[in-house]
Amino acid sequence: MVCSLVTAAVAAVLSTVAVAAEAATCGPNQKCPESAPCCSAYGQCGVGAYCLGGCDPKYSFSLNSCVPAPVCQSEDYQLNSLDDIAPIDEYLGDASEANWVASGQPVAYNDEAVLLTMAPETVGTLLATTHYVWYGRISATLTTSQGAGVVTAFIMMSDVKDEIDFEFVGVDLEHAQSNFYSQGVTNYNNGANLSVSNTVENVHTYTIDWTPDAITWIIDGDEMRTQKREDTWNSTANRFDFPQTPSRVMLSLWPAGLPSNGEGTIEWGGGLVDWNSEYMQNGYYYAMVNEVKVECYDPPRGANTTGDNSYVYNDYAATNDTVAIVDREVVLASLHATGDDPDIDPDATDDDEPSSTSSSSSQSTSAEVNTVPGVSGAGARSDENSASDDSDSGDSSDSGDSGNSASPSSSSGGSSGFSQGDGSTGGDENAAPGKPERILTGGSAVAIVVALVGLLVL
Ligand SMILES: *[C@@H]1O[C@H](CO)[C@@H](O)[C@H](O)[C@H]1NC(C)=O
Ligand SMILES: *[C@@H]1O[C@H](CO)[C@@H](O)[C@H](O)[C@H]1NC(C)=O
Ligand SMILES: *[C@@H]1O[C@H](CO)[C@@H](O)[C@H](O)[C@H]1NC(C)=O
Ligand SMILES: *[C@@H]1O[C@H](CO)[C@@H](O)[C@H](O)[C@H]1NC(C)=O
Question: Catalytic residues per the record (predicted)?
Fold first, then answer.
């Protein structure tokens, strides 16, 4: 469900900004074509970064299209610089080179923290780990942002959209909202508010303890909520609606309060974002992340283990017992490569002229193919418009139409996603703040979408 909402959202985004010629979409009953085999978290087909974190094996061309997911690595990440954070359009899948991938604008703060920023005309920042976690204890030490419509999130999200959340709305600094989802399916009973003292003024450590049998949400060492797997049986689907697949750690700051978002979303977030707020500094809203600690638990008993480098899926059911741990390790040769064909590198033969003079013959095959989810035709765009290394800032900040596209893109992302969701399951009352779970479902997915779209304007 989230997938289809997000598909619509991104389709709208892409058509608004007109960077993608004709991106194929993917979702239930619609796999990606061989030419653009990887289904992004947003329901669009592409190559390159589409095949990395968030690539959904269920809707990709083959089970090998998505690059295998790097296995869990226990580590204490001191987030005090940007050294360990790769921009999403530069990361090719080598998790030994960067532990984090960013969309949007992370900012180093005083050698002691990383700020997730959200400036006017942007849709915030998303950080995701390059290593996955298949059960473990994950802690984030942070202060949230504040203000109407401003949402801070610390979540676990798998490529098939199993999800475990801590979310913080900027008008309620006394609660963390806990939630979980199974394969992106909306469930209205999964959310719960957890009491906490002022999340802006006080640094707290939020912990997700995730085992095959239970999830426990913990704040500053106090267990606040436990969800057992055995209480999540879904007799329709004939399985447990319990997060059970390898997941990335994600931290994000995003605007729920954009005028074009669904009314319920805006209400949930506490109203429209004030872009001249006293809560902004240096021109942006920010959440401050000091540390993320990942303690990996052993793979579940009975896991199909033939190696120790990566997680892959053996079956489209994408349940726990279709995950295998293998030796296969894939680093893409370029943003035109895929899990099926990792060595593609159109620039390999003419790398002395990587900029606007790139041969149109090599582009003719790749120009139609999207390479960075949320930014889309970036491969073609960066190759044609500027040298790939500086394409981001140069490309998007200098052109007026990036600025213009910002509001329509983020807003169409929000509004198509949310309004479809609100409409399809029973009308307006479901969009009311009394039903935060559905909004949160859209919210988390859109948090990622909008953060990616934010690249367009940064
Ligand atoms: C959590 O608190 C918010 C207010 O901040 C409220 O709107 C929402 O209904 C609460 N959610 C649950 C599950 O109680
Ligand atoms: C059970 O699973 C089905 C199929 O995925 C889904 O449509 C339904 O919403 C689920 N039920 C609940 C209560 O989540
Ligand atoms: C998968 O989950 C089922 C419960 O649904 C459990 O019995 C089984 O042991 C699990 N297998 C693995 C490999 O985790
Ligand atoms: C275990 O995983 C390997 C590698 O993906 C796969 O080839 C094999 O079929 C799997 N075995 C079972 C019993 O699922």
Answer: 163 (nucleophile), 167 (proton donor)
